[in-house]
Specification:
Radius of gyration: 25 Å
Oligomer: single chain
Number of helices: 14
Strand order of the largest sheet: 9-12-13-8-7-15-16
Helix content: 25-40%
Largest sheet: 7 strands, mixed
Strand content: 15-25%
Length: 444
């Protein structure tokens, strides 16, 4: 395992050194990330995954079972019997780095299917692995049709695991395909997936307005809202409705947007035409619905790219489409709740979305924070207090959600790495008995 660790520790140094500018530029230009978002993702978090996963593997190996007199018990962490299929998304270069390398660090061979809209930065990662000393055939970079590749891989007896980040529809389809082939596999496959989110921000009546404004804007609109953790539903107390919504709308209208080569821009374009047209259609439908108003944004400029203005929608229906369905774009929908009944809004937040990925509680009142965390404990896998619901850091906030957000196997922690191992327990008897009879059986 030390030889595998050395490869990825060297890869981390290549990411932060020799390849830093190339990987950064590929992520900016290929995935439309601002320089700040790309630096955090492609450089910092990618290197963090490589270094921390080595430490996590060390931590797993440190735990050993107890041994009694005359025996030696030990636990080893074998790779799975077969290969792991890694399917990565476009929106994070670091996720594309972690999905194949975590199983590889644990000793597995991996077939890696990158997203078609992030092939450039992902190819740079593959080049980094080669230069770091990864042998051929360990991580196999195979861009192309996901459906065609999945048909082949899921039919193989050697298929041992799926490491996935992407849409619910694709994940559900892969899970069904695995179930259909179950009898033909050598072992029950490991399935680890992170899918969608409909992430909430609850502004408590005691919230600081500056904190609320910063958390909402960063949480909803950084990287054009193309994060599974991005804030997309906002709950505003009626007692502070105008103060909060008017300020938010004014700030949103002024957010600078344009090409990523202009470092003054806060937002850039969404990933492709299909995404752009789909989001605009949802926004237009919302605008036409009764009880709904567009407070900011709602339009796009596609003359020289897929630029959608950051949008704030106000709805009177807490179960409207844009409060329930994931849009994966710069769209935030607000609902004004009656702060005389906080228990009702907790139930509303918990019951509105099928997802449970991230959420944020903004409050100055400590009692309000405690009550909200207690009520919303199953509503998210990552909860944030007085912060945006995005930006989990490897080794600090293990990331993943439950319900329809995935299997909650916590990337950036030992729990994820453990999924790619097959523990072996060995008991060695140091003083073996020479007679099958037990002591109570001898004599009269």
């Amino acid at each position: 395992w030390e030889d595998r660790a050395a490869v990825f520790l060297r890869a981390a140094d290549l990411v932060t050194g020799k390849y830093r500018m190339r990987l950064l530029a590929a992520t900016m230009l290929g995935q439309s990330k601002t320089v700040q978002q790309a630096e955090i993702d492609a450089v910092c978090e990618t290197a963090d995954f490589f270094r921390w996963n080595v430490r996590f593997l060390e931590q797993l190996r440190e735990w050993q079972p107890e041994s009694g007199p005359g025996e030696w018990n030990r636990l080893s962490y074998r790779p799975l019997e077969g290969f792991v299929y890694a399917v990565s998304p476009f929106n994070f270069t670091s996720i594309a780095a972690n999905l194949p390398t975590a199983p590889a660090l644990a000793g597995n061979a991996v077939v890696w299917k990158p997203a078609s809209t992030s092939v450039l930065s992902n190819w740079v990662l593959a080049e980094i692995y080669r230069e770091a000393g990864l042998p051929p055939g360990v991580i196999n970079f195979v861009p192309g049709s996901g459906a065609a590749l999945s048909r082949v891989l899921l039919s193989r007896r050697e298929f041992a695991g799926l490491h996935f980040t992407g849409s619910n529809e694709v994940f559900d389809g892969l899970w069904r395909g695995i179930a259909e082939g179950l009898a033909g596999y050598r072992s029950y496959p490991r399935i680890v997936g992170e899918t969608g989110g409909k992430d909430f921000v609850l502004i408590d009546p005691s919230a600081d307005p500056d904190t609320a404004t910063a958390a909402v804007i960063r949480g909803a609109y950084e990287y054009q809202g193309q994060k599974c953790s991005a804030a997309s539903r906002l709950y505003v107390p009626r007692s502070r409705r105008d103060e909060i919504l008017d300020r938010l709308a004014d700030e949103i209208r002024g957010l600078p947007q344009g090409p990523v080569t202009d470092f003054r821009n806060f937002l850039a374009a969404v990933i492709d035409e299909a995404s752009c047209e789909g989001i605009l259609a949802r926004v237009r439908a919302a605008a036409a619905a009764p009880g709904t108003r567009i407070l900011a944004g709602g339009e796009g400029d596609t003359s020289e790219g897929w630029f959608l203005r950051p949008t704030l929608i106000l709805t009177e229906d807490p179960k409207s489409e844009t409060m329930v369905k994931e849009l994966f774009g710069p769209v935030l929908t607000a609902f004004v709740y009656d702060d005389r009944d906080m228990e009702a809004v907790y139930r509303l937040i918990d019951g509105t979305s099928p997802y449970a990925l991230t959420g944020a509680v903004l409050a100055e009142d400590r009692g309000a924070i405690v009550r909200a965390l207690g009520a919303l404990g199953n509503s998210a896998g990552n909860l944030y207090v007085n912060d945006k619901p995005t930006g989990a850091v490897v080794g600090r906030q293990p990331f993943g959600g439950a319900r329809r957000s995935g299997t909650n196997d916590k990337a950036g922690s030992p729990w994820n790495l453990l999924r790619w191992t097959s523990p072996l327990t060995v008991k060695e008897n140091l003083d073996p008995p020479g007679d099958w009879r037990y002591p109570h059986m001898s004599g009269g």
